[in-house]
Amino acid sequence: MTTDIPSAGQERPVVNPMFLFRWEETQQAYVLLYPEGVVKLNDTAGEILKRCDGAHTVGEMIDEIAREFAAAPVQIEQSVQKFLEVSHAKGWIRRQA
Q1: pLDDT 10s per residue in the chain (97 long)?
Q2: Range of the domain at 31
Q3: What is the 3-state secondary structure (H, E, C) of the chain?
Q4: Which of 3, 17, 19, 68 is the most buried (most CB within 10 A)?
Q5: Is residue 1 part of a domain?
């Protein structure tokens, strides 16, 4: 992993301001809106991105999601970190400035 990817437990990723993250009632899903289109997110992606608010560390996100889905943090840590890496690569999230 590179140091640019918000995966360390103490990183506090935020949604890139070029994207608008919100719940879309008509689609019954979280979405990322941007000038060229929309990305409809699955439930897990929505739960992760709604915590990319600059207040939650990656470690806190993992713990909260584990509690919400009644799973051990070690079971979901790799999935959350992988999603954050992909989201960072796509420009959806970034490190808090």
Answers
A1: 333 444 467 899 999 999 999 999 999 999 999 999 999 999 999 999 999 999 999 999 999 999 998 888 888 999 999 999 999 999 999 987 5
A2: 13-90
A3: CCCCCCCCCCCCEEECCCCEEEEECCCCEEEEEECCEEEECCHHHHHHHCCCECCCCHHHHHHHHHHHCCCCHHHHHHHHHHHHHHHHHHCCEEECC
A4: 19
A5: no
Six-digit token string for 59: 């470690």
pTM reported for the whole predicted model:
0.85
CB-based burial of residue 58 (10 Å sphere; 0-12 exposed, 13-18 middle, 19+ buried)?
buried
- And the tokens for 60? 């806190």
Tokens of 48: 């992760």
